[in-house]
């Protein structure tokens, strides 16, 4: 049975949170309810991550096979491929051809970064304002139209199909970018330490640098001395030259992204991100106030969005800003 | 909620609580306060404000108490240093989107924002006010000051429950705004429930303090005041008295201190409303005219019908609301009796309601070309005025309201609670049809703050199918039922506000079901203690029918009946 195989392969979700895939599938399978849904999340809203695009370009049939396996395993009514706007345009007709008579729909998502958060995704499909739902209940218990719903990242379905075909080699996709010679998407072993991944792909810089790993906005800053651990979070590594990078400029880039993408529902995200941005624009970056704001973002925000903001800011402040000043 | 009890520990103190309760509810019932702004027991849990975060022993991170269900043996810490620091920062962020204008706020001493800021030593000006240039809009008698809005969305949910869907969330992120809808198909019904559910005092009904104080000094005017049935059970709260305190006598005394020439009781007019409405009901039933008949005392409900459901206009009773009946009687009957030019009379109403400010301005409400009532103050506004004038209700000797428009029955005061109009009308319709009074006057099946109640009442040969709804979401249930079965009911009372007028949009803050129950109980207590409990036995009312109306149907119609018409969207004014 496929779930046993997924368990044996120890597959974890590729969206960023890393939840054990087999456990999630079992939850949906065991949840009471006649109608169940499978959703393939291709929101890919995190900057510097381009792996879903890459997989859709090269292996769309593998992804569809993964979704088909899920529909069969959990006895779902139908599946939805939830595609960000530009991917929808690019891949819609090819996907439809590959889907054929399978009960899978292709959905165009326009909600941006937060639209990829799994409960926001449900609201978007239901035609509501793009905002997260309170958890619990979790989507496997009560998801789309309150029915048990399996939501996995596109790469997770890809990996499931590979497992079923006996071709899975515990790899994941890395998008490598920034101050590197060979930017691109690479498929490497999932336990590869970050420095090795850079080295293998010909991207290890010969100058002083730091990286932002696990997402180009919400990923955390890692120093050169911290790169002998595997990548966690979203599948991206962005390399920054220590000499050339202006930290205020980098933080501004983040706040511009977060200020545009947050939904405005909870206080820490709506107000906290606004104040971080304000401080940077007014050139009055107050580290104490910034860390108080990131603390409420990390601990009290309604959904994972705020934790992502805190992740990048806190690591930059603690590892780079406070060191320099 | 399940009734099984479990034990949890809050701050080291064992607390018994119901399965299914939230941490916030469990703490509240144990007398442990947890700060919360977007939480209101009338609303769903949205968990936006992030102030109620608490720590649970053995768990990583903090959780919002409003959205976290209790589990057996759960150990909760509500005031750790970490929690306090997080609350302080979130409060500073909230206060930076709220322009303080504390001397002119509906919350006054009850303001939770200021209380929490003091509790957690938050610097309310830590960050510059970011909404300082946001608009202030006015629609009907309601004013929405967006510079004070903290985006909690309580008003939006309440507006949706009230079936108006007029307040909307627009834009995203820090550009999120709550604003009145520009959709021509949506309009405010002026119920004021947004006001009583806004923790930040961003919404209020327009007040007329200055004008009233000037009028009271004007030697050429005779300024009289009339107060609604429910005020006597709620105004005490503005003077720090317990919920459900009955202060009729002190209220009359306080109004005299303010300088009103006469103090009349709208309850007298409620007895007229009852008699006229019971008569209309009997006529509609016996002559097989349009049924069901809806009550029309509630101007927010009438506005809803006139704007959203004009097809139901013919179902509204043509009897005026008690406020407009008394205003009309003052400017006709009383003016004639006292030989006063009615144009010199200024009638001020004290109402539990913001829509009453709108009701007096309606063209079709006019009597001899005059507004029946010239100005309306809400219970809250009267409380403010008494404070400004340093009149302390608590310490006044009770006085009685003025003749002839001060005498009322028990049936009249219960108008202030949901089901009261129905119960009063049934008492009188029973007498009108059978010729004798009901043996048991108490109609339990239409009492209580439950949102939707129905009853079949035997009146002689007739079985009257009655329904009572309070809160517009319950009115919607009745309307949906009627859509399926138009003959489901003969007579329907609808009050737009939860609990009826005692829960009105002009009532003191805060409000919840417990408070509404206490206010309603106070009114039923008055009814129970009254010697005369049926409208048709009010001697003053009988006298006015005999001496003034003299069975002149045209006059009765002119003074006590009105008509309705389809309303189009009213203007939203940018201030």
Q: What would your notes on this structure say?
A:
Chain A has three domains: 2-164, NADH-ubiquinone oxidoreductase 51kDa subunit (Rossmann fold), CATH 3.40.50.11540; 171-241, Ubiquitin-like (UB roll); 247-324, de novo design (two linked rop proteins). Helix content of chain A is 45%, strand content 16%. Chain A has twelve helices and nine strands. Chain A has a five-stranded mixed β-sheet. In chain A, strands 3-2-1-4 form a four-stranded parallel β-sheet, with helices on both faces. In chain A, helix 5 (85-99) links the parallel strand 2 and strand 3. Chain A starts with a helix and ends with a helix. By secondary structure, chain B is an alpha/beta fold. Chain B has three domains: 5-79, Roll (Ubiquitin-like (UB roll)); 99-205, Alpha-Beta Plaits (2-Layer Sandwich); 209-560, Rossmann fold (3-Layer(aba) Sandwich). Chain B is built from 18 helices and 19 strands. In chain B, the strands form five sheets. A five-stranded mixed β-sheet of chain B has the order 2-1-5-3-4, with helices on both faces. A four-stranded antiparallel β-sheet of chain B has the order 10-7-6-19, with no helix packed on it. Chain B starts with a strand and ends with a strand. The model of chain B has no long low-confidence stretch (mean pLDDT 95). Classes of the chains: A alpha/beta (325), B alpha/beta (575). Chain A binds chain B through residues 129-130, 134, 259-275, 278, 289, 292-293, 295-296, 299-302, and chain B through 45-51, 53, 61-62, 64, 67, 82, 85-86, 89-90, 93-94, 96-97, 126-128, 130, 151, 169, 171-176.
